[in-house]
């Protein structure tokens, strides 16, 4: 509190620390000479009354943000006040603003020299404040993302905001059509983010006039029609283009586009059709290409080899057909490749350089032949999904070289032979699916050496979050304090990073249905599925030591012998399917505790269980008391015994 005595203090910056406890609002109120106040990025709690700053005539910069939106309340309306200051920067992020009305701060009507306005994640409601842009002609950074602002967005066709380089209205309730004049209204924009704000209508042709544009995000709206031919002719500075999750159709880019600096293109979940056009022909810097879930057809063109820097390639859920072109052999930087859910066929070229690959998804195609040997050098591979293809031969011996593998899904192929013990060297695996093949022989007891959920995530190898990260930058004016003039002068442009994350998804059978596991949940899911093969012999007692398993399916094989008593160690099990085998004996009494506490699903159908069936009533069917005891209310159990 002794800071309150520093009556001549001009600058107070305690941002980006780990401070907690009450917000030091009383100190800010007391220091009437303050020109620069930054309390951003701490763990403060409490409230701040902006009317208490009405007489801070020197105030030019004010920043406040919190790691938790519930912890800081900012009041600007009660009591009403007329400010004596003119702000250059006003930034309030991840705070609760003007509860319960959540209105836009009315003191901003009196501000005419703003350079940066950022009110985000503040539950701010009301009509979009076009007047703020009109009143502040020098504004270059405008961000009101993640609020409840309504529209429509309206600009006079003759209005110009030439100083604006960052405009972010994402994640609001604006709705309506995007003004067709917007490209002319903001001719010098560098970053434009209008995602997730209920926009509909067509893609404005005037965007083709934004020659300085670096980053454009129009994703997750309801835009329709095609991308106009004007867009792309003069947008050579564009680096990131995200228009995914709309209703756009036609070619995915205009044929004569000239995106020479483009390195990230996200067009997933639209209705783009036709072949993979040459609209990205000149985009040789491309590193991220996502065209998934569209209606693209034809073959993958050989000119894909032009993109030597391509790191992420996602063409899944289209109607692509034919072979993988030899041009793929020049894509040595690929880290993430998803060609799933198409009609691709043939084998993968042996010349493929997969040494950088971390994620490979080829499921639901018509690929054939042996599992490609080009994967043997993919030592950093984390996820491999070859489900629902026509791969044949045996599980290769070189599979033990993929020591970092976390997900291995080979379901529904034509694989034969035995389950090689080399799989047991893949100790980091959490999900292993070999079901619906023609594997025979016994279940190797060394499967006990695999982690199956017990692996700690401290090694940074988590699957669900941050798989695809594309950073982009916008610019915001930074100010430096000049002690000679007691003024804050504009400095250099400060890069402000934005990050996009794409959650990974995997399908795995559990509780008689295929579940989709996505995002962070992948880091916690674990399962082993060997069902629908020709496996024989006893269930190894060592399988019962896989205490991290959530799902175990050994059904529809030719397994014999008893259920191992060690299954009582499956303390995390939620789904257990041993049905359609030739198991015999009794249900081990040791299973009682496991079933009572954790077991959600059990299927022992078509198993010869001795002395456990007791016919009660032919009309009601069979009733089976497990271990001769009634299951208590803690047990969630369904299925067929």
Automatic annotation (TrEMBL):
Protein name in UniProt: Uncharacterized protein
Pfam families hit by this protein: LRR_1 (PF00560), LRR_8 (PF13855)
Coiled coil: none
Superkingdom, taxonomy of origin: Eukaryota
Lineage start: Eukaryota, Viridiplantae, Streptophyta, Embryophyta, Tracheophyta
Family, as annotated: Belongs to the RLP family.
PANTHER family, per the entry: RECEPTOR-LIKE PROTEIN 12, RECEPTOR-LIKE PROTEIN 14
Keywords, in A-Z order: Leucine-rich repeat, Repeat
């Amino acid at each position: 509190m002794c800071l309150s005595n520093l009556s001549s203090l001009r600058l107070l910056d305690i941002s980006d620390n780990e401070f907690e406890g009450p917000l030091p609002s009383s100190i800010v109120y007391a220091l009437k000479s303050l020109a620069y106040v930054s309390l951003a990025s701490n763990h403060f709690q409490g409230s701040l009354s902006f009317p208490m700053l009405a007489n801070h005539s020197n105030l030019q910069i004010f920043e406040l943000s919190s790691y938790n939106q519930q912890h800081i309340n900012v009041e600007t309306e009660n009591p009403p006040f007329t400010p004596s200051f003119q702000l250059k920067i006003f930034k309030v992020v991840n705070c609760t603003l003007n509860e319960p009305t959540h209105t836009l701060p009315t003191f901003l009507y009196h501000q005419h020299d703003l350079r940066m306005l950022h009110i985000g994640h503040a539950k701010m409601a009301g009509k979009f404040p076009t007047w703020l842009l009109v009143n502040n002609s020098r504004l270059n950074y405008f961000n009101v993302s993640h609020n409840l602002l309504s529209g429509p967005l309206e600009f006079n066709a003759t209005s110009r905001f030439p100083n604006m380089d960052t405009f972010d209205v994402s994640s609001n309730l604006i709705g309506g059509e995007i003004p067709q004049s917007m490209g002319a209204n903001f001719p010098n924009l560098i970053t434009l983010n209008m995602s997730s704000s209920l926009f509909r209508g067509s893609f404005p042709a005037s965007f083709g006039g934004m020659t300085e544009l670096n980053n454009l995000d129009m994703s997750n709206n309801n835009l329709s029609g095609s991308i106009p031919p004007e867009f792309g002719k003069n947008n050579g500075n564009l680096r990131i283009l995200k228009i995914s999750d709309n209703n756009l159709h036609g070619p995915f880019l205009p044929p004569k586009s000239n995106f020479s600096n483009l390195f990230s293109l996200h067009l997933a979940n639209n209705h783009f059709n036709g072949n993979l056009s040459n609209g990205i022909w000149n985009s040789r810097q491309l590193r991220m290409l996502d065209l998934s879930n569209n209606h693209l057809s034809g073959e993958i063109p050989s000119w894909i080899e032009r993109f030597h820097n391509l790191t992420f390639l996602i063409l899944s859920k289209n109607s692509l057909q034919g072979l993988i072109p030899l041009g793929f052999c020049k894509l040595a930087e690929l880290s993430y490749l998803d060609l799933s859910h198409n009609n691709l066929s043939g084998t993968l070229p042996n010349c493929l350089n997969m040494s950088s690959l971390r994620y490979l998804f080829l499921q639901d195609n018509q690929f054939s032949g042996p599992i490609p040997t080009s994967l043997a050098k993919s030592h950093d591979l984390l996820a491999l999904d070859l489900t629902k293809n026509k791969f044949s031969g045996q599980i290769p011996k070189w599979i033990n070289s993929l020591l970092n593998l976390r997900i291995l899904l080979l379901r529904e192929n034509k694989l034969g032979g035995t389950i090689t013990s080399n799989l047991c060297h893949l100790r980091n695996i959490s999900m292993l699916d070999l079901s619906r093949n023609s594997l025979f022989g016994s279940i190797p007891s060394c499967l006990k050496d695999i982690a199956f959920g017990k692996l700690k995530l401290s090694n940074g190898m988590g699957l669900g979050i941050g798989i695809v990260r594309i950073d982009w930058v916008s610019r915001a004016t930074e100010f430096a304090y000049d002690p000679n003039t007691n003024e804050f002068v504009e400095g250099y442009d400060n890069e402000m990073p934005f990050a996009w994350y794409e959650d990974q998804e995997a399908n795995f059978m559990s509780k008689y249905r295929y579940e989709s596991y996505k995002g962070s949940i992948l880091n916690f899911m674990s399962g082993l599925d060997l069902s629908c093969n020709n496996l024989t012999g006893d269930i190894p007692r060592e399988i019962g030591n896989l205490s991290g398993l959530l799902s175990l399916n050994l059904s529809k094989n030719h397994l014999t012998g008893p259920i191992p008593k060690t299954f009582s160690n499956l303390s995390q099990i939620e789904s257990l399917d041993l049905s359609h085998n030739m198991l015999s004996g009794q249900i081990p009494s040791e299973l009682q505790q496991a079933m009572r506490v954790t077991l959600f699903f059990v299927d022992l159908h078509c198993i010869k269980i001795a002395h456990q069936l007791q016919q009660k009533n032919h009309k009601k069917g069979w009733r089976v008391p497990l271990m001769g005891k009634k299951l208590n209310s803690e047990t969630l159990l369904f299925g067929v015994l």
